[in-house]
């Protein structure tokens, strides 16, 4: 069964450093997403991406974040200058982008745990 | 405001007993509702979803959920819990359009005792 994959599973970085989190969405999916979950808190939406553009973003997704689809398979989240409060589990998701009478279901990867020291 | 509330942070159920996890939502448009499960070290796996039609939906692993519009609820049930069901369960609400953010509850951790 196709699944979303993410690398690395765990990343440790120093405050102020740039990090890139990588995701390979399900191959025929058109929409891609990033969510994060700070320890003990809710899973929060960051951004959705379609056709090489941001489709929707939350207040969390400020100028220090960026997303990119650098090739036909990868989808990345870059954090430009990490802060302590960026420590969280980051989930990538993808969806087919169906229309009409059915729901568009998001399928999630296993997550990358980011630790900022 | 759009939100999802899962009132129970942690539930312990005996193996073989029935289970009900509660979920209440607040959403401005027609809600599309989901339950995801997260086992330790794993991603979020879709258990089931509701968007229209029969208000009782069946999912994987023997789970079902009932949508009650009047109560703004979407509770998850299972008639007989197995030890492998121990995990964290998340209720989420979203819109119909692709690319729309899912809004998650804080999750309920299920422990199963023997």
Q: Key features?
A:
heterodimer, A: 117 residues, mainly beta, four-stranded antiparallel beta sheet, 0% helix, B: 114 residues, six-stranded mixed beta sheet, 12 strands, globular
Q: What would you say this structure looks like, in words?
A:
The complex is a heterodimer of chains A (117) and B (114). Chain A has 117 residues and is an all-beta fold. Chain A has strands spanning 5-7, 10-13, 19-24, 31-37, 43-50, 53-57, 65-68, 75-79, 88-95, 107-108, 112-116. In chain A, the strands form 2 sheets. In chain A, strands 2, 4, 5, 6, 9, 10 and 11 form a 7-stranded mixed β-sheet that branches. Chain A has a 4-stranded antiparallel β-sheet with strand order 1-3-8-7, with no helix packed on it. Chain B has strands at 3-5, 10-14, 19-21, 24-26, 32-38, 44-50, 56-58, 64-68, 73-78, 87-94, 103-104, 108-113. In chain B, a hairpin with an 8-residue loop joins strand 10 (87-94) and strand 11. Chain B has 114 residues and is an all-beta fold. The chains are: A mainly beta (117), B mainly beta (114).
Q: What characteristic shape of chain A results from the CA principal axes?
A: globular
Q: Which series of helices and strands of chain B comes N to C?
A: EEEEEEEEEEEE
Quaternary state, please?
heterodimer
How many strand elements of chain B? 12
State the share of residues found in helices of chain B, binned by percent. under 10%
Measure the end-to-end span of chain A: 37 Å
Briefly note the structural class of the backbone of chain A. Answer: mainly beta
Task: Outline the biggest β-sheet of chain A.
Answer: 7 strands, mixed
**Helical segment tally of chain A?**
0
Structural class of chain B: mainly beta
N-to-C order of helices and strands of chain A: EEEEEEEEEEE
What is Rg of chain B? 14 Å
Could you tell me which chain pair has the largest interface and how many residues each side has? A-B, 34 and 27 residues
The average pLDDT value of chain A, as a whole number, equals 92
Low-confidence stretches of chain A: none
């Amino acid at each position: 069964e196709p699944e979303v994959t993410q690398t690395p599973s765990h990343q440790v970085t120093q405050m102020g450093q740039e990090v890139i989190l990588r995701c390979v969405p399900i191959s025929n999916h058109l929409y891609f997403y990033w969510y994060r979950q700070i320890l003990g808190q809710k899973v929060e939406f960051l951004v959705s991406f379609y056709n090489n553009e941001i489709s929707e973003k939350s207040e969390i997704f400020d100028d220090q974040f960026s997303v990119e689809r650098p090739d036909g398979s990868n989808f990345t989240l870059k954090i430009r200058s990490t802060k302590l409060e960026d420590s969280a589990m980051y989930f990538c998701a993808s969806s087919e982008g169906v229309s009409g009478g059915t729901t568009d279901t998001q399928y999630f990867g296993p997550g990358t745990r980011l630790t900022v020291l | 405001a759009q939100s999802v509330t899962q009132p129970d942070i942690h539930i312990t159920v005996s193996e073989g007993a029935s289970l009900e996890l509660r979920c209440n939502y607040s959403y401005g448009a027609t809600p599309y509702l989901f339950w995801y499960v997260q086992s330790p070290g794993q991603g979020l796996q879709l258990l089931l979803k509701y968007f229209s039609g029969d208000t009782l939906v069946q999912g994987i692993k023997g789970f079902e959920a009932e949508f009650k519009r009047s109560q703004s609820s979407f509770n998850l049930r299972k008639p007989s819990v197995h030890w492998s069901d121990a995990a964290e369960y998340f209720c989420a609400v979203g819109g119909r359009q692709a690319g729309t953010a899912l809004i998650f509850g804080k999750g309920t951790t299920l422990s199963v005792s023997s």
